[in-house]
Design brief:
The protein is α+β, with helices and mostly antiparallel strands and 261 residues long. It has one domain: Fumarylacetoacetase-like, C-terminal domain (Fumarylacetoacetate hydrolase, domain 2, Alpha-Beta Complex). It contains six helices and 13 strands. Strand 8 and strand 9 form a beta hairpin. It starts with a helix and ends with a strand.
């Protein structure tokens, strides 16, 4: 796939976002054919958009989801600063096509994890984290088929990343049971999903270890100040609008977002 075709694919996806329209697919002439081409289009999409990157989101962190998506390892997309919010935010429901809500932990980096030859260990990644927050990911898609598209196209569309909502910091997180703490997702006061941090690949830090090593190989690494969200504790829930969604992390706190009509 030539650089020009990569940019054409990126401009096509960016145009769909700008016009708030759903598409069948990226045109065959410049559709990414493999994972690497998908990431190249994602890179170009962010560059063409000209927005600052505030972190990363990770999807398909478990074998079950990798099988559903059609990949052999997790996938990643950018958290874009214009779409990073604090808990309690009100967002237009019609700004999203599918409004997927996920309860996730957000890891805040206190120092860089730069590109290097040697793989990062879990201990090194944990040491670089200076805070963990209760968070929510809002996912969306440009495709009429939603998640049911080929993996390169899914990755190209920023791995369906749409928005990030940051909640309270987890107290004394290094000693907290992030994997075992129960999490509930409520919509308009009713529990619609439940789970634990272990549903993000065994422990919510583990997908971040994968990301640190994926980005070190890709040459950019991870930067201090970034947030990384590492997959849902409560599964994938498609929210109606208008509605109020709350991710309840029990003793760790709550994250709230309201979708207006």
């Amino acid at each position: 796939m030539t650089p020009e075709k990569t940019r054409e694919a990126a401009r096509f996806l960016l145009s769909a976002r700008g016009d708030h329209r759903l598409i069948e697919a990226i045109p065959e002439a410049y559709r990414p054919k493999d994972i690497e081409e998908g990431y190249a289009v994602q890179d170009a999409l962010v560059a063409e958009w000209g927005v600052d990157v505030g972190g990363w989101k990770i999807g398909a962190s478990t074998p079950e989801w990798q099988k559903k998506v059609g990949v052999k390892e997790p996938i990643a997309g950018r958290l874009l600063k214009p779409f990073m919010y604090e808990s309690g935010v009100e967002l237009e429901g019609r700004a999203f096509h599918i409004r997927i809500v996920e309860s996730e932990y957000g890891f805040h980096l206190g120092r860089d994890l730069p590109a290097r030859d040697k793989p990062y260990t879990r201990e090194e990644v944990e040491d670089a984290v200076d805070a963990v927050h209760c968070a929510m990911e809002l996912a969306d898609s440009r495709y009429k088929a939603g998640l049911a598209v080929d993996p390169p196209s899914l990755i190209a569309d920023n791995a369906i990343g749409a928005a990030f909502v940051c909640g309270p910091a987890v107290p004394n997180w290094r000693k907290a049971d992030l994997a075992g703490n129960p999490v509930k997702l409520l919509v308009d006061g009713k529990v619609v999903a439940e789970g634990k941090g272990e549903e993000a690949g065994g422990h919510p830090i583990l997908p971040m270890v994968w990301l640190a090593n994926d980005r070190r190989k890709r040459g950019d690494g991870l930067k201090a100040g970034m947030f990384v969200i590492t997959s849902s504790c409560t599964g994938v829930y498609r929210c109606a609008s208008p509605a109020k969604a709350v991710a309840d992390y029990g003793p760790f706190g709550k994250v709230e977002v309201t979708f207006t009509a």
